[in-house]
Specification:
Layout lengths: L4 H7 L29 H19 L3 H13 L5 H14 L3 H12 L5 H17 L3 H12 L5 H17 L3 H14 L4 H12 L6 H10 L3 H13 L3 H17 L5 H14 L4 H16 L3 H14 L6 H15 L3
Helix pairs in contact: 2-3, 3-4, 4-5, 5-6, 6-7, 7-8, 8-9, 8-10, 9-10, 11-12, 12-13, 13-14, 13-15, 14-15, 15-16, 16-17
């Protein structure tokens, strides 16, 4: 049967009904294609364009256009808007608008973000506040950081920064509390040493044995010896013997080891209290120091004597084990 023009207009050139054509999406052929897009696609693209424009402008040093782009980026109010606010804050810093930057960092941190990102944003806000004359506000912001700071080295860093803000605010008791926490909980960190040096510089009370241990951890041998000397002056009895033992260990470990003095001191401690915990440990330290000084055979013999003299001491098996190990290394079985 003949097909008229009306038939072609209805089905198109293929002669098929629209629903049968490949790729047909349910809209008439004459309808503009952009109306067929999902409504969320275009805002996401605009957001990405704003992000790219802001980053490009910031990289070129054009911080005012970058700020405008990041503000537009944030205005879309999506789950990643707080991160756009962080970029906005960095542009404000580059424009030397520090007060506004601190507020923007704090506002971003208060939103739903990854916990570590929150801590970093609060830290940025706190540092800006502290460095620009607002120590009381900085202390509040550092408290937010500390509530999220779990890694010991990072927490030590924040405690030290917070101690500076506390000192600026005249809160010296809080400053000392922050520094003490660093020294007792993270003495091995960089800020453990900084905290100790700050306390001594400000003539704050510091336990000499704690100071000595921190200096030992950071291989500041002369400073450690000085602190142990201070501890000896205020100690007695078994406590003083332990301080002497620790001091002798520094002598054998320092940059230029003094084995002779260390051996003599350890021997004197062992003889002064041979059956006490500190005396027994000093005897073992003496044997180990003898081996470190180069007398391996003498150390092996002394370990055997110790194990025979104190068979019930919990350190005796260690002495026997060390004896076998050193004997194997020196072929002295």
């Amino acid at each position: 049967r003949a097909r008229g023009p009306w038939r072609l207009r209805r089905t198109g050139r293929s002669g098929r009904a629209p629903a049968q054509r490949p790729g047909y999406d349910g809209h008439d052929a004459g309808q503009p294609r952009q109306l067929c897009r999902r409504p969320a696609v275009e805002p996401v693209r605009r957001q990405h364009r704003a992000d790219e424009a802001g980053r490009s402008a910031a990289a070129a040093g054009e911080h005012q256009p970058a700020l405008a782009a990041f503000q537009q980026y944030r205005s879309f109010d999506t789950p990643i808007s707080p991160y756009a606010q962080l970029l906005e804050a960095s542009s404000l810093v580059a424009l030397h608008r520090f007060d506004q930057a601190a507020q923007t960092y704090a506002e971003a941190a208060a939103q739903a973000m990854v916990r570590t990102e929150q801590a970093l944003a609060f830290e940025q806000a706190a540092t800006l506040a502290r460095d620009h004359g607002r120590p009381a506000e900085a202390q509040q912001l550092y408290a937010e950081v500390l509530s999220r700071a779990e890694v010991p080295s990072y927490r030590a860093k924040i405690l030290f920064e917070a101690s500076i803000a506390a000192a600026q605010a005249g809160n010296f008791q809080q400053q000392q509390a922050f520094l003490n926490e660093i020294m007792t909980r993270s003495p091995e960190t960089e800020h453990g040493l900084l905290a100790l040096d700050q306390q001594l510089k400000d003539s704050m009370p510091v336990t000499p044995t704690l100071a000595a241990r921190i200096y030992v951890l950071h291989k500041r041998w002369d400073d450690a010896l000085s602190q142990y000397d201070a501890a000896l002056a205020v100690s007695s009895g078994e406590e003083q013997l332990e301080v002497r033992r620790q001091r002798a260990l520094v002598l054998r470990t320092s940059t230029v080891p003094d084995y002779a003095t260390a051996l003599a001191e350890l021997a004197a401690i062992g003889a002064a209290s041979p059956n006490s915990n500190v005396g027994l440990q000093a005897q073992l330290d003496w044997i180990q120091t003898l081996g470190q000084s180069g007398d391996s055979m003498g150390a092996i013999s002394a370990y055997r004597e110790y194990a025979a003299a104190y068979p019930n001491d919990q350190r005796a098996p260690e002495a026997v084990s060390y004896t076998h190990l050193r004997a194997h290394e020196t072929d002295s079985y």
